[in-house]
Amino acid sequence: MISTARDPEILRFMDGLKEYGFTHRRLSVDSRKFLSLSVKDQRQKAFEEGETKMYFVEAAWDGKYCCAYADSLAEQEEIFGRLKETAGVFGNRKLPEQIEESQDLRGKRWIEIDRDKVTDVLRYAECEALSGEKADTVEICEYRQFEDTITLLDGHGNYLTDDNGDCTFTIRVIAKDKGFVSGAVKLGIVDVRDEEGFRETAGYLARRAAKYARFGLHAEEVISRICPIVLENCVMAELMGYYLPMFYGENLRLAESALAGREGEKVGCPFLQLEEDPFSFKGTCRRRIDDEGVPVTKKMLIHNGIFETALYNKKDAAAAGKTSTGNGFKPDITADMGTRATNVRLSSGNGTYPRKELIEAAEGGIYITRIDGAFAGTDTKSGDFSLLASGNRIEGGRVRTALNQFTISGNICELWEDIEMIGDDPVYRMVDGTCVLSPTVKVKKLVVSGK
After folding, report:
1. Closest CA to 161 of 103, 101, 100, 110
2. Residue 445: Cβ-neighbour burial (10 angstroms; 0-12, 13-18, 19+)
3. What residue spans define the domains of the chain?
4. Residue 116 — left, alpha, or beta (φ > 0 → left; ψ -120 to 50 → alpha)?
5. Which of 261, 200, 311, 202 is closest to 413 using CA atoms?
6. Packing angle of the helix pair 8-20, 76-85 (nearest 10 deg)
7. Using one digit for the tens of pLDDT, what is the confidence trace for 290-334?
8. pTM of the full structure
9. Which CATH architecture group holds 2-215?
10. Element holding 356 (H helix, E strand)
């Protein structure tokens, strides 16, 4: 980011580090812009926008690594003092490397919106949702956009800068009937510059949210059994997100992953594809470099059912005798460097099917529309899961009676192997900073525990 890399305050700060006696200087600047707009009962409910900035400085004092955080560079002496105090505390961290060549890799994703036009679309979406059968209220009808910019500067004046951001629409609808209450939420990526497309997407999502809220009314209990399962796209995306740490280098090396020692082996059905694509416009996490300045790349995690690629940051790659895959990311600028994926997409290498055909093929089974407790109910070391779920019976080739909360259990690798059909309707979910895209999938069987 030229404006950040050449900001006079930042240049003075970097010069001050040198004059104070620090070597191996590096400054990370994390800037975030955000905006949200929502309506309720056809009126603009809220509008919020803002910008935040955080700084993370690394250096060496007497050859020892040191670091400090700040939300402002105004008090240089105070920051230098805190920085000096940490020298040698983080003995396992390497000194920052020099940036070879300055590069501005930003996509410049921020969009200046017309508030009135966005509000009109949200009002339209609210009306579309409330026109649905049994729809009672719209709890959420919101447009959001953000832009995160990361800039790395070294003590020689070189810099790398990249950004990430997108625009999204979210709607949650409540349906009521004869004392029964049910809710459903739908969300999607939108392009507000395409007024017609934005309106169509918002209306479509609103109608689907109303439809799925109605599907949840008059729920019945489930009898425990093993049966065919259709996992709705949003459910499969969420489930996959919780198991991505199985692909992280440190977990594989320490045998904390169910995939440890299985690179090159079959872990899923023959047509299962799981790809990380940091450049995909269907995902919200588009980057050109990771937080360590390493270029990101497209890569197949699972290719035709075979576990093909593990993900590494610099530290874990060195420990495994490999090179970084460009997956060194921090949860936030104050956290230690970790491993994370950008956009991960589940797809089929052998054709896809309309959702209607997946449902017809799962006669007598259950259509899962929601899972709960994934944080506690998923185990990446064993691959096992036990999750509260909601959904509907599949009868006569259609989604029928709603079912009360029940439990589905199994193992993620066995689930991958039991996938029989993959749909053509991918949607995204954000899980721990990664954008996971998945279509609806039909699974041969899962254990369902009810009454």
Report:
1. 103
2. middle
3. 2-215, 225-449
4. alpha
5. 261
6. 50
7. 999 999 999 999 999 999 999 999 999 999 999 999 999 998 888
8. 0.91
9. 2-Layer Sandwich (3.30)
10. helix 355-360
